Amino acid sequence: MRIHSLHSSTRWRLAAGIALAATLLAACGPQTAPPAPPPPEVGVIAVQPRDVPLVKDMVGRLSPFLSANVTARVSGVLQRRTYVEGANVRQGQVLFEIDPGFYRAQLENALAVLAQDQATLANARMTAARNRQLLPVGSVSQQTVDNSDAAERSAAARVRADEAAVATARLNLGYTKVTSPIDGIAGQQQLTVGAVVGNGTSDGGANGTLLATVQQIDPLYVNFTVSADELMALRQAQAQGRVSLAQQNRVQVKVRLPNGAPYEHPGTLDFTAAVVNAATGAVNLRARLPNPQQALLPGLYVTLSAELGEQKQVFLVPQRAILRDTAGAYALVVGPDAKVLRKNVQAGTARGSDWIVTGGLAAGDRVIVSGLQGAAPGREVKASDWQPPPPAPVPGNVPAPAPAAPASAPAR
C-alpha cells in the first residue's frame, strides 16, 4: 500500500511539471497582433457649382410715402376741428375751420366796389359812344371824344382790378376752411380751439401755423444703407463676371417684422443715391413697400433681405460641414484614395442652412458633413452619401391618429 501511494504522488508531480513547462513554452512563443479597427464612417456630399441669388440682410427704417403739413393760410381764431385724430381723410376734406367773419366782410366790400366801378364803366361807355356819333356833325370836338374814350378805358381797368380783389377776398374766405392736401391718416392737432393761427397777415403767406400732419402709409418707404466698400466690391465682382447685379427696379426686398415673422408683401428698390454719405461712409437706398392693411407704421425698424442679383458658379455647403480655426474657414474632403484632405475655403454668406462658398472647392469634391469627429487630415475613412435630416414637425400640424375600427356586434 505504501509503495502504490508513492507511485501515485510521483505521477501527479510529473504531470504538473509537464503542464507548467508547456505553459512556459507557450508564453515564450510568438504572439498574434490584434486586428486593426475599421476606418471611421463619414457622410459626404459631392458639391457642384451653381448660380444662387445674391441676398444681403440689412436693417432699415420705415417712412411714409407722402407726408404733408396742414397749415393755416390766413390769420384768425381757430373755431373747430372737423376730423377724428388718427383717422383716414381724403384730399380736400375740411379738417379745421377758422373764424370767417373778417374775410366775409372783405369779400362783401370788394363786391360793392366792383359793382360801383361797373356802373361807372357803363356810363363811360355810353358817353364815349355818344361823343363818337356827334363828332362828324361838329357838335363835339375831337378833344372831347378823346377824353371820353380815355375815361372808358380807365373805368374798364378799375373793373378788372376790382374783379381781382373779389377773387382774392373769395380765396381768403375759402382758406378759412383748412383742407387736407393729400389722402392719408391725419395726426394729432397741434393747437386747440380758440387759438389764434396764421402769420399775422391777411394773405397767410408761407409761414402759416402748423395745425396737423397727414401721412400716406400705403405704400411705405423702407430706407437702408450699404457700405461704400461693399458696393464697390459688388461692382468689381460684376466686372469680373462673378456676380450679376439686377437693375434697380427689379431688386426685390423682403421684410421681417421686429418679432421675426416675415411680412407677406415684398417691396421693390426704387432709389439708390449717387453719392456716398460723408458722415457714415455708406450709400443710401430706398425700397417701396406695399402696406394695404396698414400693418406697418412709419418709424419702425425692420430687418430686410434685398435680392441684389445673382452669384455665379458658387457652392452650397451645409453649415455643419464648414469648420473654422485660427487660419480661417476650411472643409474636410475625402480624396480618391479614401483619405481625408483639408481645403481652405471662402465662406462669408449664409443662405438658409448652407454656407455660400465662393472659393477653395472644386466641382465633384466630396465634402464631409457627418462623422467629422472621427475624420482628420491624412486619415482613411469610409464614405457614404449624407442625407439631410427630415424637417421638424410644425406644432399644431401633427396629423390626428386614425379612429379605431368599430367593434363588431356579438353574434346572436
How helix-rich are the residues, as a percent range? Answer: 25-40%
What is the string of helix and strand elements?
HEEEEEHHEEEEHEEEEEEEEEEEE
Q: Give the helix/strand class.
A: alpha+beta
Number of strands: 21
If you consult CATH, what is the topology of the domain at 44-50 and 314-385? Answer: conserved putative lor/sdh protein from methanococcus maripaludis s2 fold
Average pLDDT confidence is 84
Which residue ranges are poorly predicted, with pLDDT under 50 across at least 5 consecutive positions?
1-6, 200-205, 402-412
The major sheet is characterized as: 6 strands, mixed
CATH architecture heading of the domain at 44-50 and 314-385: Beta Barrel
Q: Please write the CATH class name of the domain at 44-50 and 314-385.
A: Mainly Beta
Radius of gyration: 47 Å
Cα shape: elongated
Number of helices: 4
Distance between the termini: 90 Å
Question: How much beta, percentage-wise?
Answer: 25-35%
How is this structure best described in words?
With 412 residues, the protein is an alpha+beta fold. It contains four helices and 21 strands. The protein has helices at 2-28, 101-134, 142-175, 228-239, and strands at 41-46, 50-71, 76-81, 88-89, 94-98, 177-179, 184-186, 196-197, 210-227, 243-245, 252-256, 267-272, 282-289, 301-318, 323-325, 328-334, 340-344, 346-351, 354-359, 366-370, 382-385. A hairpin with a 5-residue loop joins strand 16 (328-334) and strand 17.
